[in-house]
Amino acid sequence: MTAVLQLTDVVRVHGEAPHEVQALRGVSFAAYAGELVAVMGPSGSGKSTLLTIAGGLDQPTSGAVTVEGVDLARLGQPERARMRRTSIGYVFQGFNLIPALTAAENVALPRELDGVAPRQARAEARQALEEVGIPHLADRFPDDMSGGQQQRVAIARAVVAERRLILADEPTGALDTETGEEILRLLRARCDAGAAGVLVTHEARHAAWADRVVFLRDGVVVDETGADRAETLTEPAAR
Amino acid sequence: MSVKHALLALLEQEPMYGYQLRAEFEQRTGTTWPLNVGQVYTTLSRLERDGLAQGGGEDTEGHVIYRITDAGRDEVATWFTTPVARTQPPRDELAIKLALAVTVPGVDVATVIQQQRSATMAALQDYTRLKRQATGTARAELAWSLVLDSLVFAAEAEVRWLDHCEARLRRAAAELDVQNSRLTDGTSSVKREFRRSTGETHADRTRR
């Protein structure tokens, strides 16, 4: 089985010598279908850089990033943008919804950008909203929703049309404990349904929802818990 | 942990025999703090001695049924309305281990911290997995889920404390480095300040 996301020896240097900052110093990392991987580290450890690179929003200085077997570096700008819209879903701490669009329109937007007919995009959006438990809020605007509801919309947008890789950067940061837990439950359910998820967080309680926890320090992976999980997934004992 | 009060509180609900008490206790708390039946019966006989419970009457299978007395009810009420004492912190092996690790020469403290963090994180993952399964709204299941939350918060606090220790040790090490370099490179801060203000570079100095 190939990894949905594979980072190989990824280095990311910001700025130039002598003031260069090595945000990532040779990180190799994979996320497989059906698993949620948490990346934990203090601020400045490189975890957000790792996520933006994994999602094709930033390019590594060296090393390779493949999503569903496709090397992002080999893609041109338009193909990469298309990949971001069709294969990858993002969830941010700040929700990043467009205030002038309703919940359903926000969720449908990436599909419409991708050339899907508006009618179908809208239908897919409603299905995604149903999946995250808020079909009744489809016509609501973000400002008329609570933080937890907005984050559910953001998750619906991240998973609409069966995207296989979900990247979440501190998705529960702005929410209270119980609402945050519901959001993690949703991410978890999505991964149990077959997506690969990467959750960046500095909170152990949230990382604990993952199958594996990767510890990042100064741009290097220093340790990992539950490391056997990916192995058993890739090489079933029956074979 | 006060087994005595826990059992009394259960007896307030209804009269029960030993095995039943153990089952009820574990339904609410999981097997986090396993009780053996011997312990239950020893506690029951102490409760009887102190006049807080009374054994008597048997069910059809010959189990001795215990019921709570009025004094027992008062005792339970007092227990619930008194905060758990925090006067003496329980012995914390991890805190002790770390206190020694930072002082005994030759110990790789960073590794001690990371190993513990991984182990605690793995436990936290286990608790969270159990929590995901405990979604019922029945009273006893809710109780068990709250006990799990307590374990989750405690493990989380431990990870946070380890993060904090690591950050403080790093800062201390960085400060020590600065002090050492001041001592060893023979360059006074005045000289360095001079070089910076005149724009003299390392290359200039080596050329000289």
From TrEMBL, chain A:
Coiled coil residues, start to end: none
Keywords of this entry: ATP-binding, Nucleotide-binding, Transport
SUPFAM superfamilies assigned: P-loop containing nucleoside triphosphate hydrolases
Matching SMART domains: AAA
CDD domains in alphabetical order: ABC_MJ0796_LolCDE_FtsE
Gene Ontology annotations for the cellular component aspect, listed alphabetically: membrane protein complex; plasma membrane
GO molecular function, one term: ATP hydrolysis activity
PANTHER family linked: ABC TRANSPORTER RELATED, IMPORT ATP-BINDING PROTEIN
Name of this chain's protein: ABC transporter ATP-binding protein
Source organism per UniProt: Nocardioides simplex (Arthrobacter simplex)
TrEMBL record, chain B:
Bias type Basic and acidic residues, positions: 190-208
Transcription regulator PadR C-terminal domain residues: 91-170
Domain Transcription regulator PadR N-terminal: 7-77
Pfam family name, one: PadR
Listed Gene3D superfamilies: 6.10.140.190, Winged helix-like DNA-binding domain superfamily/Winged helix DNA-binding domain
InterPro entries the record matches: Tscrpt_reg_PadR_C (IPR018309), Tscrpt_reg_PadR_N (IPR005149), WH-like_DNA-bd_sf (IPR036388), WH_DNA-bd_sf (IPR036390)
Chain residue ranges for the region called Disordered: 186-208
TM spans (from-to): none
The protein, known as: Transcriptional regulator, PadR family
Species of the source: Nocardioides simplex
